[in-house]
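Consider the tokenized backbone below.
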């Protein structure tokens, strides 16, 4: 695609979808006639803007902000904000594109969007984070709203950042609209179980897939990459299901604890102290910290990549297979390259793709929007129960779509097809817009 030739991650995401859809276009020529593919790969709107702010030293800093409003076919644009130095148009477009199909899979009425900035929150003071968030929202506020576009968190954006962003939105608009952002704190409209939703949802999905193949988490050795929001709650639920989680990481290295990771300590280091995972071994000297190491060197039966895109390439996939991996569940977005996915599938490793497996976060975000609209707050059990049902449905719908289109057991194809069909039908009915 010449128009986007420099956007490698975006093209990778499109290629994966297109590969899955051949059978769909054969069976549904009406999608071809309606130009669905040509339209769906072009965002409805891509916004880029200047984000100036003043650091603690009094220096002016300038970052670039983005929001891609990819598809509103089935609901308001919905998708997180990522603050990380690697953020660029390609990253935001790949994430926004994936989000369209993921959101459709949840069964909730939400379209696809994504945003963020090349701002690096690492090492910044609380004041600097607040100033940056306020400047970012000063521009973003004109493009979003509870019925238009509803951002949430992603890498580098958690409850603290959402709080500052929401405060600034409210000040600019002069009205209280909690439904404009999700992932809020509980005291101003957040939902119970949102924090846990992506990680828990990933493990619920994996449990479904394992059980369908006569397996489960009990006594399995699990490794997880990252130690952020998704990783922490994936580890917690995997342990609750009887697994032994032995390794996790951050961008500087990984820890290996053969006795099982102390998840409460990881929470304290990462969520409370905002420290580095290397600090883990100060309390557990028997555990190992490998600086600059690749967590996927650690043998495991179940791998849950939950850090970032393309962290598993072909060679890493081969290492995992050689070490006896039986199942891989993507907590991060697009953590496996196309070649890595091929390796897993050829070796009959059970593979749960991100679009389906990590959809729990956005699903509960949609439940947060529903609670905000009706000014109610549901119990943890109620939200968690709905999350479990949603993840089961996503699994079943993906498996069914895979069977129906001649790809039995292939969840990559199944998730892509099931998500696509819903959006494509809405686009056909709404005409060429
Ligand atoms: P967090 O910022 O909470 O955590 C990210 C973790 O991954 C950190 O441990 C971070 O290490 C590590 N990491 C980030 N970038 C890199 C990199 N380039 N190389 C190595 N390690 C890296 O983010 P989340 O947990 O929210 O997100 C993780 C993944 O899950 C992302 O792909 C995100 O898009 C996806 N996701 C998140 C959802 C959510 O609800 N939060 C929903 C669906 C998907 P360090 O601390 O050193 O930066």
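A designed sequence for it:
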């Amino acid at each position: 695609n010449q128009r986007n030739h420099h956007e490698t991650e975006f093209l990778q995401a499109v290629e994966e979808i297109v590969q899955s859809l051949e059978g769909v276009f054969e069976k549904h020529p009406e999608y071809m006639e309606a130009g669905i593919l040509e339209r769906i790969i072009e965002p409805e709107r891509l916004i880029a803007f200047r984000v100036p702010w003043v650091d603690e030293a009094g220096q002016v800093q300038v970052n670039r902000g983005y929001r891609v409003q990819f598809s509103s076919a089935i609901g308001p644009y919905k998708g997180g904000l990522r603050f990380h130095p690697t953020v660029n148009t390609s990253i935001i477009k790949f994430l926004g594109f994936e989000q369209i199909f993921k959101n459709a899979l949840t069964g909730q009425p939400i379209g696809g969007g994504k945003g963020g900035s090349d701002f690096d929150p690492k090492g910044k003071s609380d004041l600097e984070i607040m100033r940056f968030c306020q400047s970012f929202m000063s521009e973003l506020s004109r493009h979003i709203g509870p019925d238009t576009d509803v951002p949430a968190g992603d890498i580098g954006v958690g409850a603290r950042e959402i709080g500052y962003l929401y405060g600034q939105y409210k000040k600019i608009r002069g009205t209280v609209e909690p439904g404009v952002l999700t992932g809020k704190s509980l005291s101003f409209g957040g939902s119970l179980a949102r924090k846990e939703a992506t990680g828990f949802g990933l493990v619920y999905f994996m449990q479904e897939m394992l059980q369908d193949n006569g397996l489960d988490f009990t006594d399995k050795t699990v490794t997880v990459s990252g130690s952020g929001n998704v990783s922490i709650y994936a580890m917690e639920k995997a342990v609750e299901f009887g697994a032994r989680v032995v390794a996790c990481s951050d961008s500087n290295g990984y820890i290996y604890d053969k006795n099982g990771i102390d998840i409460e300590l990881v929470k304290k280091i990462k969520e409370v102290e905002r420290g580095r995972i290397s600090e883990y071994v100060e309390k557990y000297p028997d555990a190992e910290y490998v600086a600059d190491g690749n967590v996927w060197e650690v043998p495991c039966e179940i791998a849950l990549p939950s850090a970032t895109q393309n962290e598993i390439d072909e060679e890493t996939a081969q290492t995992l297979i050689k070490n006896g991996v039986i199942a891989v569940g993507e907590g991060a977005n697009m953590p496996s390259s196309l070649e890595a996915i091929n390796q897993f599938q050829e070796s009959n490793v059970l593979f749960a793709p991100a679009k389906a497996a990590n959809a729990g976060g956005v699903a509960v975000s949609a439940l947060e929007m529903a609670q905000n609209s009706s000014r109610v707050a549901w119990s943890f059990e109620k939200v968690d129960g709905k999350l479990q049902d949603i993840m089961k449905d996503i699994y079943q719908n993906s498996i069914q779509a895979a069977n129906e289109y001649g790809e039995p057991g292939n969840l990559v194809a199944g998730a892509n097809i099931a998500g696509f069909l819903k959006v494509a039908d809405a686009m056909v009915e709404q005409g060429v817009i």
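The domain at 195-348 is CATH 3.40.50.720 (Rossmann fold).
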